Amino acid sequence: MDKKGTDKILSIYWFLILTIVAGGIFAMVYVFYGAPSDVREIEAELLAQKLADCVSKNGLIEENLFLNGEFNPAINAYFTDRCGITFKVEEGYGDETEIQYLYKVSFYDIKNVVNPKFVISDGNLNWENECFIEKSNSKDYLRLVKCKERRFYAVDKENNQYLIEILSGVGKSEKNVKK
Amino acid sequence: MDKRGTILVENIVFLILNLLFLSILVLFLLKQGSGAIVLEESYSKQIAMVIDSAKPVMVIQIDLEKGKKIAETRGIDFGEVVGIDGNIVRVKLTEKSGYSYCFFNDVEVSSRAIKDSKGDYTGMYLFVVNEKGANANG
How many of the other CB atoms lie within 10 Å of CB of B42? Predict the structure, then answer.
């Protein structure tokens, strides 16, 4: 038996295996660190919490949402500012005029939770439908806006009960999803 | 004699190459995990998220020790690593790189690196969150 020849063949196989293993590890690490960390779900959750804090405190709906006992429709124009929310973003999101956030706060009478009694919304509402697309692992899905939906109950000062539903969403796919 | 000598050299070369392979692999993994670019992104997003969840008048400390080490080796003053311009967090650990991320919380934030009694940077950063328009001297 040619021992020297067998050893050489073994060494070649060994290095071939090492190369494959190393290549696999390089590829996995590259894919893992090459993709940006997606924080949009956390952002959407934080946005929903901020809105919830703005709408009601200790279970009581903020008084300035009402005018003469009814919801004040004019609040829509300045609600974002009043809640201390800004939609300004840094460069790097393509179209600078495109707002990267959206939110919708719906107030339902407790006796009718189908049709909202009042809705406050702002941001890029063109993306609202994307919030309800079924989850998948496709690249197209990952690039869609990430949304959070939160519900809670609150009362007004006349003790009328409301179900409040908050939908918040964050786009920013350019900095959170691999191109 | 010749045969034994040949086997020894082959074994040594085999071992050296193996070790070389493993060393490169380990170095690559370590470098990737704590690279400036990865840390810049992670720090800027982390800081933006913390600010988004903050309320006036909070004071927040964040540990950026790993970033301090990288900044020092690259000749960057740690006090200049984090910058907040309006609602945009910018983290810069090397001359050539940098990463920005914005927060939606419309507050005024000031940041500074904390120094110890000897005047050396501790690796911690201090963020002071104030109402918009308020004096935010951290």
Answer: 17
Q: Which of A18, A86, A91 sits opposite B104 (nearest CB)?
A: A86
d(CA B57, CA B74) in angstroms, rounded, equals 34
The single-letter DSSP state of residue A145 is P
- List the single residue in A42, A86, A92 with the smallest CB-CB distance to B106: A86
Q: Provide the pLDDT confidence category of residue B15 given band limits of 50, 70 and 90.
A: confident
Burial of B101 (0-12, 13-18, 19+ CB in 10 A): buried
Q: How large is the average pLDDT for residues A152-169?
A: 95
What are phi and psi for residue A163, nearest 5 degrees?
A: -100, 125
Could you tell me which chain A residue has the CA closest to the CA of B101? A90
Query: What's the burial of B90, exposed, middle or buried (CB within 10 Å: 0-12/13-18/19+)?
Result: middle
Residue A41 is which amino acid?
Answer: E
pTM over 0.80: yes
CA separation, residue B50 to residues A109, A165, B60, B64, B102 (Å): 34, 24, 8, 14, 11
> Do A164 and A106 meet the contact criterion of CB atoms below 8 Å apart?
yes
Cα angle: A65, vertex A66, A72; to 5 degrees: 80
Q: E strands of A124-160, at which residues? A: 146-155
Per the listing, tokens 């939160």 go with A150
Give residue limits of the domains in chain A. 1-34, 37-176
Which residue from B15, B87, B81, B96 is spatially nearest to A100, judged by alpha carbons? Answer: B87
Q: What is the pLDDT of residues A63-86, one digit of tens each?
A: 989 888 889 999 999 999 999 999
Q: Which of A108, A75, A176 is nearest to B102 (CA)?
A: A176
Which residues 94-123 on chain A approach chain B with CB closer than 8 angstroms?
101
Predicted ipTM?
0.85
